[in-house]
C-alpha cells in the first residue's frame, strides 16, 4: 500500500532551502526578563518553608457591582499565609490576597477553584525540603500548576511580603519602584441611566478630586452614557471598559465602537473576546481611540504577541495594556509584562479585581514601577466592602502615597487577630 505521506516527505524543503522562513534561534524577548534583569532585589539567604496555609473571609460590598456577568453583592477573599525560617532560626511571615469573583464569568476562576489550587500548591511547597534562594526558586515549587492565576498571585504575594518584612523595607522598594505617590483613577459599573452614571462621576470628580474615570459599557449601553459624561466634563480623562461585550465582526457593534472616537477617550478597554489577540488589531485598526487589552493578556508571551500583531496590522502606539497581577498569575509576571511593553512604547496601567484593602495595597506597590505610566483603578466611591480588614489609603488630588512600613505595610499576625480570619493549614 502506498504511503500517502511519502510524496510530502520527499518534497519537503530542507532547512537550507527555507531561506527567510528559517525559525529564529534567538530566544523570545520575554525570556530575557529575569528577576535580576528587572531590577528586583534578589534573595541570597537560603530560607526553609516552615508553614503554609490560607485564611478566608466573606466580605459584603458597600454597593453591588454590576457587569455583564451579573450583580455581585458579596465576595470571598482568600489570604495565603507563608512562614519561612532562616539558618539562624528567625521566622519570616508574609500574607497575600487571592481576589476571585463570585462566579467564573471573567476568567474561569471563583473561590472554589482558588481553594482547590491552593491545596495543590500547599502540597508542593511542603514536599520539597530544600531551601529556597529567591523568587524564581520559590515559584518553581508550584510551576507545574497550569492556570489558576488568582491562586498563584496570593502565594507569590505572601513570599514578597515575608522577604520585605525581613529586610525592613516596603515591597515596592524590592521591586525597584521609583514613585512614592501613585496616580489613581476609579472604575464605575454599568448604571441604569446616564443620570445615574453622572451622579457617580460627579462624586468622583468634584468630591474626590479624581482626574481619570473608567466606565463600563456594553452594546446599547454605550454612546448615550459616554456622551452625557463628556458633555458634563469636557476635559476629564475618560476611558471605557467593555469586558469583551462586543462582536468584532458585527457591523452594528463596529459602528458603535467607531462612534466612540468622537468623545476623546483615553482608551476602549477589551472590546472583543478575552481569548483574542489578532482580531483586535485587524478589526479596530481604523479607530483613532487606543485599544486596551485586559483579559487577552495572561502572560508576557501574550504581551509580546499582541505588540507584534499591532505592529503588523495596525499601529502599536494605539495599543495599551491593563496589567492586573491577579490575572497574570503574579507580581513577577506583571513586572515582566510592564517592562516588555515599555520597551516598545506601549503604555501600561494597573486595573483592579475588587480586591480588599490588602490586594489594593499590593497593586499600589506594583504601580510604583516606572513602566506603569497611566492612572490605575485604585479608588472607589467609598470602601468597596462594609467590613474590609484593611482601610483603603487616602487619595489626595488624584494621588495615593505609598506605604513606607515593611512589606505591604500591614502586620500579617495582627491582621489575622483583628479580622477573625481562620488559618487553614
TrEMBL record:
Designated gene of the protein: menC
Organism: Thiocapsa imhoffii
Keyword terms of this UniProt record: Lyase, Magnesium, Metal-binding
Chain segments carrying region Disordered: 1-29
Protein origin, superkingdom: Bacteria
UniProt keyword Protein transport, yes or no: no
Domain called Mandelate racemase/muconate lactonizing enzyme C-terminal: residue spans: 194-290
Protein name: o-succinylbenzoate synthase
Enzyme Commission identifier(s): 4.2.1.113
Amino acid at each position: 500500500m502506498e504511503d500517502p505521506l511519502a510524496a510530502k516527505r520527499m518534497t519537503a524543503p530542507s532547512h537550507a532551502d527555507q531561506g527567510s522562513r528559517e525559525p529564529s534561534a534567538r530566544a523570545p524577548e520575554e525570556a530575557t526578563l529575569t528577576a535580576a534583569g528587572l531590577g528586583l532585589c534578589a534573595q541570597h539567604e537560603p530560607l526553609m518553608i516552615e508553614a503554609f496555609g490560607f485564611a478566608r473571609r466573606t466580605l459584603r460590598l458597600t454597593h453591588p457591582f454590576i457587569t455583564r456577568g451579573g450583580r455581585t453583592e458579596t465576595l470571598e477573599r482568600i489570604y495565603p499565609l507563608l512562614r519561612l525560617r532562616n539558618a539562624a532560626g528567625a521566622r519570616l511571615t508574609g500574607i497575600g490576597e487571592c481576589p476571585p469573583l463570585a462566579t467564573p464569568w471573567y476568567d474561569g476562576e471563583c473561590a472554589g477553584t482558588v481553594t482547590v489550587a491552593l491545596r495543590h500548591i500547599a502540597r508542593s511547597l511542603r514536599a520539597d525540603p530544600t531551601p529556597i534562594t529567591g523568587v524564581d526558586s520559590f515559584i518553581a515549587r508550584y510551576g507545574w500548576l497550569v492556570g489558576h492565576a488568582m491562586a498563584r498571585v496570593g502565594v507569590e504575594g505572601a513570599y514578597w511580603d515575608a522577604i520585605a518584612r525581613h529586610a525592613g523595607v516596603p515591597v515596592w522598594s524590592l521591586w525597584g519602584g521609583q514613585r512614592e505617590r501613585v496616580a489613581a483613577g476609579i472604575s464605575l459599573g454599568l448604571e441604569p441611566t446616564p443620570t445615574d452614571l453622572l451622579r457617580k462621576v460627579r462624586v468622583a470628580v468634584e468630591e474626590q478630586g479624581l482626574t481619570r474615570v473608567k466606565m463600563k459599557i456594553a452594546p446599547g449601553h454605550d454612546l448615550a452614557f459616554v456622551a452625557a459624561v463628556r458633555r458634563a466634563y469636557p476635559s476629564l480623562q475618560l476611558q471605557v471598559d467593555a469586558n469583551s461585550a462586543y462582536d468584532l465582526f458585527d457591523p452594528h457593534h463596529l459602528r458603535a465602537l467607531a462612534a466612540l472616537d468622537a468623545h476623546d477617550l483615553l482608551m476602549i478597554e477589551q472590546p472583543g473576546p478575552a481569548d483574542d489577540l489578532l482580531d483586535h488589531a485587524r478589526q479596530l485598526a481604523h479607530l483613532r481611540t487606543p485599544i486596551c487589552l485586559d483579559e487577552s493578556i495572561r502572560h508576557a508571551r501574550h504581551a509580546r504577541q499582541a505588540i507584534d500583531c499591532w505592529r503588523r496590522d495596525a499601529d502599536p502606539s494605539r495599543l495599551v495594556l491593563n496589567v492586573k497581577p491577579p490575572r497574570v498569575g503574579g507580581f513577577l509576571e506583571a513586572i515582566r509584562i510592564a517592562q516588555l511593553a515599555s520597551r516598545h512604547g506601549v503604555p501600561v496601567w494597573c486595573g483592579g479585581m475588587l480586591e480588599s484593602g490588602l490586594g489594593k495595597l499590593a497593586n499600589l506597590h506594583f504601580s510604583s514601577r516606572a513602566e506603569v505610566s497611566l492612572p490605575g483603578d485604585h479608588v472607589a466611591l467609598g470602601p468597596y466592602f462594609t467590613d474590609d480588614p484593611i482601610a483603603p489609603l487616602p487619595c489626595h488630588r488624584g494621588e495615593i502615597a505609598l506605604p513606607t512600613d515593611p512589606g505591604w505595610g500591614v502586620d500579617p499576625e495582627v491582621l489575622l487577630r483583628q479580622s477573625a480570619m481562620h488559618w487553614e493549614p
